[in-house]
Design a protein that fits this description.
about 220 residues, alpha/beta, Heat Shock Protein 90, 2 domains, five-stranded mixed sheet, two-stranded parallel ribbon, 9 strands, globular, histidine kinase, phosphoprotein, HATPase_dom
Length: about 220
């Protein structure tokens, strides 16, 4: 594997390492090590996925890599912002959306992942759970919301609630999904439910007419 600077998801198996910053704190050093270690694991998963012939198994490994990348991005954000206790959730979602968009198709089937976010700060554990949840939702929308040969957008919206907490929405304008359940093996749907429970947040699927909308509401930051 080739070592490079910067930090972006690897689709070639390269290990991408965060560059050092000046005068890092102990928390910065910890987040630096965690982010780089997770990036290494993600690169290894990417290499294994390319060697798998079965398309379903390959897709599972690729999704696993995205989940690892979502957690790595939290520590990357903490490292760059010198934050130890809270993550600027809107900024994090912008970074995550840019990463996810790279894996959402090209050419006529290109998918834009757009973010509109209020200023909301959350603890790192909360950001981790939201990152995994959003990665799962965006991946499902990329695969199932639109016809394979057409482009389409996925929108992530984060609103601060008047008395604390936040409202998170992930929406597409595709053909809809009937009862709103995620497709595939069902693991994604279970993971979304698990992350929502971990966040102690209410969530639901809505018919966006057209498309599908996922809404999560938490009464606490």
């Amino acid at each position: 594997m080739r070592m490079t600077n910067g930090f972006t998801p690897s689709t070639t198996g390269d290990v991408v390492v965060l560059p050092p910053i000046g005068d890092p704190s102990a928390a910065d050093e910890m987040n630096h090590r965690i982010a780089n270690s997770l990036q290494l694991v993600m690169a290894m998963v990417s290499v294994e996925a390319r060697a798998v012939i079965d398309p379903h198994a390959r897709a599972v490994l690729q999704m696993t890599g995205q989940r690892i990348g979502a957690i790595a991005n939290v520590h990357r954000h903490l490292y760059r912002s010198h934050a130890a206790t809270h993550v600027a959730l809107g900024d994090y979602l912008e970074e995550l959306a840019a990463d996810l968009e790279q894996g959402c198709g090209q050419g006529a089937a290109a998918r834009r992942v757009l973010v509109g976010a209020d200023a909301v700060a959350v603890p790192p554990d909360t950001a981790n759970a939201i990152g995994v949840l959003v990665s799962e939702l965006v991946a499902n929308a990329c695969k199932y919301a639109y016809a394979p040969d057409t482009h389409g957008d996925i929108r992530i919206t984060l609103n601060a609630m008047p008395f604390g907490g936040y409202r998170l929405q992930v929406e597409d304008r595709g053909h809809g999904r009937g009862d709103g359940a995620t497709r595939g093996s069902g693991m994604g749907s279970r993971l979304i439910d698990l992350m929502a429970a971990r966040l102690n947040a209410a969530h639901c699927w809505q018919d966006a007419r057209p498309g599908t909308r996922f809404v999560l509401i938490s009464g606490r930051p």
